[in-house]
Every structure is written in C-alpha cells, then in structure tokens.
Amino acid sequence: MSYNINDKGYYGEFGGAYIPEMLYPNVEELKDNYLKIMSEPSFQKEFKSLLKDYVGRPSPLYFAKRLSKQYNTKIYLKREDLNHTGAHKVNNTIGQILMAKRLNKTRIIAETGAGQHGVATATVCALMGLQCVIYMGEVDIARQAPNVARMALLGATVIPATSGSKTLKDATNEAIRDWINNPEDTHYIIGSVVGPHPYPDMVARFQAIVSEEIAWQLQEKEHKNTPDYVIACVGGGSNAAGAFYHFLDHTEVNLIAVEAAGKGVQSGKSAATSILGKQGIIHGSKTLLMQTNDGQITEPYSISAGLDYPGVGPMHANLYATKRAEFIAITDQEAMDAGLELSKTEGIIPAIETSHALAVFKRKSFSPNDIVVINLSGRGDKDLATYIDHFNL
Ligand SMILES: *Cc1c(COP(=O)(O)O)cnc(C)c1O
Q1: Would you say the pTM of this structure is higher than 0.90?
Q2: In this structure, what is the dihedral angle of CA atoms 47, 147, 199, 108, given to the nearest 10 degrees?
Q3: Would you call 52 a catalytic residue per the annotation?
Q4: FRET partner for 175 with CA separation of 20 to 30 A, picked from 181, 185, 316, 338?
C-alpha cells in the first residue's frame, strides 16, 4: 500500500479534480506537463540552484539541546524559518514560477488569506519579472496591512474580494474566475497541497526537498536516515507534506499532524479539520472539510492565520482515514505557551502555526532514544503583536 498519489490523482478515496468545465483546459495543460517538466535536468538544475542561492537551502537540521533535555528525548528542529521570506512557502512558489515559465505563461495570479502566500508569490514574480495579481478578501486586507504593504513593495497588484464573507474562500472564487478568463497567458499559483489534481501532488513534490534534506542530515548526525517521529502543523498541509514525503511509505517512521483546536475542538471556534470534518468537495478536491449537516462550509477559527482553513489537503485526509498519521489538535493557549517556551529555551521565536507542532511535547511523551524531528515551518516576527497581546509583554 502506498500513501502517495495514484495515477488517477487520488490518495485513497481523496483528491481528484472537481472543477467547472471552463477550467478544464487550464488544469489539463498542467496535468499533462508537470511531471515531464519537473523531471527535465534543466528544470531541476534551475530549481536547486535557486533553492540554494536565493532561498538559502539546505535549511539546518538543528539539535535542540535544551529542549531535548526538558522532554528527555532527542529533538531536532528543521529550520524552514531561516528560508528567505521566513517560512517554507517559498519552496513551492519558486517551483511553480519555474513551471509557469516552462509553460510560457507571463502572468501569475494567486489568492491569499493572511497574506503569507501572497507575499511568497509576489516575491518570486519580482525575481522573474512576471506580472503578479493577488486576490485577497476585503476583510483580510484590513486585518493584514503589513503583508499588503509587502506585496505592494514587491510590485504586485492586490485586488480585494468583496463578495460573501470577504475572506479566503471569496478570494479563491475571484482567482478561479480570473483564470477561466485568462487561460492562455496566466498560471494560478496555489499555496498549499490543496486544489484540483495535479496541484496537491505538484506542491508536495516541491516541498519534498524538506524531507530529502532531513534524510541526509540525519545520516550525518545520527548515522541513520530515518527519524522515529516527524511532527508538523497542518493548515492546508504543505509543510507537513514536505516533511513527511520521503517517509510516507516507511511505516516505521511515525508521522504526527497537528491541527489547530482554536478555543477547543468542540467549542465551535476551531480549525481541527480532520477530526471535525466530513467528506466533501472544496477548491476542486474531494477531502475532509468542516461543514454543516446540509453541506455548507463552516468558518474555521484559529489564533494563527495560517491554520485557519476549513479543509485539509487530500494526502492528509487519507493519512487520517488510514491512520498512517496521528492527528492531534492543539488549542490557542497550548500553542502560545509552546511558542514562548521555544523562545526562552532555544532562542528561536517560532510562527504561531509552528508553535502548535511544538505543543505536542506537553501531550505526548517520547523515549530518551527517540529521534523526533519537528518541522519549524516559519519564524515568529509576523506574530509579534499577537505574542505581545497574549502575554502582556
Ligand atoms: C502558511 C503556513 C502554515 C500552514 O500552511 P501549510 O500548507 O499547512 O504548511 C504553517 N506554518 C507557517 C509558518 C505558514 O506560513
């Protein structure tokens, strides 16, 4: 049994491409070409060279000595927070902008919620000199002013989505409408392992550099190329997909996916998608999503903007359904405490998304000889105001 995608674009029963007919040519063009393009030596060469010299890879695999002592186990931090732009998202946008160029696209669109994916997309558009249009809910534009300013500095046009709840799903609808109207010259950069096939697989492959590096870095440090545990937070699921990728079919490696419980899984203010979700279709893919009994998508909630998503990618829905990964839901409070602890114990201020993964140590104990890798998906600078408010600093 493989936990990776099959040739029909499904992970078990999840995935596929449930899209309006008018979008069919765009998605089909990508589906027919992405694997071929990615396997070209010239593509791999350019991708690897930008990851090295522009993003700053390989990111360190750091043995967290004081944190390990605290929890009596061996904890390694995969430092995606040290990437250019401060998180893992750029691995994917670099890959997709190169894909867009190979497909002769000159214009890039994307949707963004908190603005992190918008910034990562605007960054690579500036790098390549391509036109960049970012759709963002009007409400999110007001909430995320610094990221809107970053996108403007990077030369992107930010278009407000003014329909519905004026948040992420409305921005997604606008982006899809744009793509339908501009099939020839435009590539749509999706920011996580979500959306219609082939996006979840393509994004997972770009993020797979994370587990590729973990394997050889562990070989150097521990003389074995697999850890006992890999722990990552899950919004849409891209940083977790990257950290799990090369270990998916090594069932001796335990995978832990951490979702946001918000104010508590049963509080009505949560983003614990796998635990609360039911099968349904969101963003063109069959997956688990939070919905009412009659199938309306419910608004998710988390203190961290990056985990505040009502669905989860199809790879993770399958990891949940097959129990290949353990899913743990962490509350706002637990995450904030874990973020503070890492700051004081290791001198690293994590993104609040990442803090959810770190909170697992208070829930679960590990053996002294276990090698536990945490994917440190991003840095906490963007979350300073939230930390200040929460702890009255
Ligand atoms: C966006 C983001 C996430 C959540 O997205 P995934 O696709 O689930 O990885 C997690 N951590 C950080 C730092 C982010 O910016």
Answers
A1: yes
A2: -70
A3: no
A4: 316
